[in-house]
Amino acid sequence: MNISIERNNCAECEHRMTCVGAAAGNRDASQRIRIARHDTLYQAGDAVSDHIFNIRSGSFKVLRAASQQPAQIIGFALAPDFLGLDALDRERHANTVIALEDSEVCSINWNRHAFEGRRRPVMRASLHALLSREIRREQRAALMLRNTQAEQRMADLLLSLSQRRVEFGHVAEQFRLPMSRCDIASYLGVTAECVSRLLLLFRQRALFELRRRDIKLLDLSALHRMAIGSAPESAMVAS
Amino acid sequence: MNISIERNNCAECEHRMTCVGAAAGNRDASQRIRIARHDTLYQAGDAVSDHIFNIRSGSFKVLRAASQQPAQIIGFALAPDFLGLDALDRERHANTVIALEDSEVCSINWNRHAFEGRRRPVMRASLHALLSREIRREQRAALMLRNTQAEQRMADLLLSLSQRRVEFGHVAEQFRLPMSRCDIASYLGVTAECVSRLLLLFRQRALFELRRRDIKLLDLSALHRMAIGSAPESAMVAS
DNA sequence: GAAAATAATTGATCCAGATCAAAGAAATTG
DNA sequence: CAATTTCTTTGATCTGGATCAATTATTTTC
Questions:
Q1: In angstroms, how far is D30 C1' from B69 CA?
Q2: Cis peptide leading into B232, omega within 30 of 0?
Q3: Which member of B68, B89, B133 has the closest CB to residue A132?
Q4: What residue stretches are annotated with the HTH crp-type domain (chains A, B) (predicted)?
Q5: CB contact at 8 A, B72 and B64
Q6: Is the pLDDT of residue A208 over 90?
């Protein structure tokens, strides 16, 4: 384990305008946590603190174990996603969260002291919004999975990664896949062999260039046509 | 459309001890809505009011449309489930909710007037709990879908229906499936033919008796063994 | 930087579940 | 209550992706 924690100064943070944590305006509300590749942010069974995590840099995979079975990846989280929204009312975490690369998260206290003053309705609304949004995101993921075609799932994943890059101020077309082919397979609910073949197929169709984990999307609109929520507009309606 | 709305008296409601709405103690916070089989509670694109719905009797299917494709069923909601948790921060609904039988819901205003007095921290926590719980539920559904085996998905659905019956004070073993085979197929992400064959197979294995929509589960533990969260205990950990 | 361990690709075969087709059972409708 | 319409079951065939088996990169480790 190689986790380092330090005090955070939300007042000077570049994300203070949009972050729920900064809105708390509470010195104790936020901490910066550095976490190395392959290390665990929290694990199924760990006690839940009154904190949620906002990813500042890097990326994570979220695993859920089903007894009798190896754990499956139920999501990838990239900056500026939140983690821990699924455990607000629980004693113990149900999922395990592992860093895919060296990453930083802000830990935000959402308990009564930070969130329940009568003067913090905006922030409270933000927490509701965050939670509600996460529900829609999960619904969308499930919709993607009901679409049996592995091609569509793959297209959907690539677009969702791309979109989150854009949200964080990067270009949509070019980025580095933070996860292994095997992780992708687990998330899509297919085998690693299948992922490998799909990537080959997509490359042959000139949908993207791919070398190791560096990807350059060449035909975003084709990907949109393949993916489920399809049209960019409808993707916005969905979340 | 055959929807009737009437004032609700939470103070005398049999569920006042556990219902978020009743905790509001606000006369205007809750309304009782009757809705006939096949009618729509709300539809994708409808304006979102500051209300969530608590099912008092009956059942619903929740549909999400992906452009280019027929809408898929992303969930079934039975008493005492909540509906509308996915739209707190949205202008318009992303999903469509249709009654599977004549049903009743309580509409609960969750906006600042009902929920933000300083004396309602318990209720606010309940809303957080509700939302967080819904996220876990969706994660679980997605986990179920990644499990390619149709058998496991079916076992999982039957158990989740059974569990919710128990939550509402009924017996676990015997109930009526409120949805068509076709609805089940859409939810599980398989074809109706596949559902039909699975049900036959399960009957042959003496997992349940089934006549039309009336089902009697004979071997709950076998179903638990087949389903993903497997053991009853671990199902509790998951949500 | 060579050796070991791990990840990714590629090929061959197989099977769960899709698709196509048709018959039978319930529920609606006039 | 007979006629439609819709839902469900059953059968035959086909296929996308799984599984099994090697081979070829990449990382890690010492």
A1: 56
A2: no
A3: B89
A4: 148-221
A5: yes
A6: yes
Interior angle at CA A157, CA A206 and CA B182, nearest 5 = 110
pLDDT (mean) for B42-58: 89
User: How confident is the model at residue A117, as a pLDDT?
Assistant: 52
CA distance B84 to B51: 8
Q: Is B48 exposed, middle or buried (0-12, 13-18, 19+ CB in 10 A)?
A: middle
Per-residue model confidence as pLDDT tens digits over B57-85: 899 999 988 766 778 899 999 988 899 99
- Tokens encoding A57: 């840099």
Distance from CA of A101 to the nearest CA of B (A): 24
Q: Are A218 and A205 in contact (CB under 8 A)?
A: no
Smallest CA–C1' distance to C11, residue: A193
Closest amino acid to nucleotide C18 (CA–C1'): B191
Identify the pLDDT of residue A69: 74
Among the listed residues A38, A35, A71, the one whose alpha carbon sits nearest the alpha carbon of residue A53: A35
Q: For B137-181, what is each residue's pLDDT tens digit? A: 999 899 889 877 899 999 999 999 999 888 888 898 899 999 999
Q: Which two tokens stand for residue B11?
A: 């103070």
Task: In whole angstroms, give the CA distance from residue B80 to residue B76.
Answer: 12
Output the distance from B91 CA to D26 C1' rounded to whole Å: 49
Per DSSP (E only), the strands in chain A are 3-7, 30-35, 40-42, 51-57, 59-64, 72-78, 82-83, 95-99, 103-109, 174-176, 208-211, 214-217
Tell me the two tokens of residue A216: 């350059």
In this model, does residue B221 exceed pLDDT 70? yes
Identify each DSSP E strand in chain B by its residue range: 3-7, 30-35, 40-42, 51-57, 59-64, 72-78, 82-83, 96-99, 103-109, 174-176, 208-211, 214-217
